[in-house]
Amino acid sequence: MRPIAHALAAFAASAVPSAGQADAQYKLLVLAMPSKYHYEYIPVARDSFEQLAKLHSFDLTWTSKTEAFDGDLRQYAAVMFLNTPSEELNAAQRKRFEDYMRAGGNAMVVHRAAITQPNAWPWFERLVGRTVGVHPMLQTGVVTTTDRRFPATYGVPERWIWSDEFYVTTNPHRQTISTVLTVDESTYDPTKIWPGQVSKPMGRDHPIAWHRPYERGRVFVTTLGHNGEMYRNPQYLNHLMGGIYWTATGLGATAAPSRR
Known about the structure:
It comes from Sphingomonas prati. Pfam families: ThuA. This is ThuA-like domain-containing protein. Residues 28-247 form the ThuA-like domain. By secondary structure, the chain is of the alpha/beta class. It has a single domain, classed as Rossmann fold. The protein contains 5 helices and 11 strands; from the N terminus they run H-E-H-E-E-H-E-H-E-E-E-E-E-E-E-H. The strands form 2 sheets. Strands 2-1-3-4-11-10-9-6-7 form a 9-stranded mixed β-sheet. The longest helix is centred in the N-terminal third of the chain and has 16 residues, at 41-56.
């Protein structure tokens, strides 16, 4: 009788899907390539992203190879550039990504990925919505939530003490963005930078995370995320997960209440 009982138990186990076997809601491609200043974050971020994928039931394709852009990008609800500059893609891969966005694909750009070489890929500069120039040294400042109706702000305080490289941006392509986080320049020194460089304050309007439509898709950009320990921080991971959720699905953002 014991072999029969074991067989029945095995059959019952195979008939009931585990949480890990649940159908995924969508598929996310993450390109995370090491560079001179951004490499220690990779194993930490990968582990956290894999946990997020299990917790929120989405498929994760994590890669450090741009060859992923040689395949069919239509399988992905969103493509994330994680601390990886766009110039890593060759001309054919850039064309595939452009076609993906024009067909309704979606993109998420995190920290270093928002920096592009001048005139190297103007289309991607316009996708980001802002052009990153210099940035001050990593400092502790106060991040301020400007849109509580957007998912990337749901898990962070209204005023959030955070240490990062607060990028200085310009808008040469005259793009429109919807800002969700800004940084309060009175809480750190926006001019503190390395010898030989100059950093000027942006003033009250200093966006550090935003979203926007582009081509036929959605784009979410956060310039936060410089070092590895950040990818263990629950609030930062909530910020990223809110961005992933909205970018991949278009859901979760609530409209401003109507005025009568």
